[in-house]
Amino acid sequence: MEQLPPITDDDAMSRPPAHLHPVEIACDESGSDGENLVNGNTDVFTHASVGLDRTAAEQGLDETFDRVRSPASSALTEYKANVLLRPKHRRALIWLLGPSGPLLGGAHVHVVDKRHFLLATTTALLTDTDEETADLVLAAHHAGPETYGTERWRDFLAAANDLLRARTRPDAPDPVEAFGRSVERLHAVGPADAAGPAARLTERLLPTRERADRIRLHLAQDPGDWPVLDPLFPALLHTIGHWSTGGRRVTVVHDRQNTLTPERIGHVAAATGGALAEVQLVEARQDPRIGLADFLAGTTRKIASDLLQGVEDPELTDLLRPYTDSPAGSPASWRWSGSRPG
After folding, report:
1. Count of domains forming the chain
2. Alpha helices, DSSP H, located in 272-334
3. Residue 86 lies in a domain
4. Domain contains 149
5. How far is the C-alpha of 342 from the C-alpha of 339, rounded, in Å?
6. Partners of 37 in the beta sheet?
7. pLDDT tens digits for 3-25?
8. Is residue 166 part of a domain?
9. What's the pTM?
10. Which of 87, 212, 297, 341 could be stapled to 48 by a disulfide with Cβ–Cβ 3.0 to 4.6 Å?
């Protein structure tokens, strides 16, 4: 297990009361494609956290294995969520998520529609935002494919993705020029609903060449501790915010991955205002809580992705609602109803 140094008083100006013991959570994610938010393998990113103790988590995993008739043991096996998504194991999944399972009341999952996150981030960086911006972005996200056509809208999002990547391919066209052309192509369509949200957002993005140039130059010179398009950073902030309610500090036990460098953990710590106590990176099979987090993240991602494609599973959707509450209007907020764009 790799244990990063505890956060010190130099890392934040304030912290919750010292007499409160940190709450320890174990986390895993599903659907990560890094900064590739348009042409990756998945359209949804999820980050799950489990606050159970190790004994309860191990018992929950063993019961899950028993229900899928697996000889595996939580102490020996890293078991992936796709097993629970098989039709023959549906009853086991319903048990795991439901009131009789181990997770309800002790777990949380943050759900990110990648294209919505991209559109919100692009708008925030290139335009002057106001209290109506979040609602406009969400409405434009849903209306964009119908307003401009699926392919033209996808090309616009791909250009936005290239504009905000920390590093571009050497053979790629100039990302600022490509983004500007993509916005102009949307504007040239002249949609029937010129007052609709997609058209209004396009109008906001038209005069942004100067800002786009500055952002591209800044990314080339100093990409920073964390790429602006990597959804793991805001997901960690959301997760820590969820578990620090009431003033508790949070210790995060996370599945080991290369993106969680000490520098990036320090960036998270600074952004949480002292709520993060420390981060421990472990191999997934070493902690049964990470096994449960993997189940929750993976199953939620698949069910959410199906919903984006117009395939809804009302029973599983209802079971997931208690785990996925997100602040309304946040760039990566998720709504189990009305989540399908277009």
Report:
1. 1
2. 288-308, 314-320
3. no
4. yes
5. 10
6. none
7. 444 444 444 434 445 446 899 99
8. yes
9. 0.88
10. 297
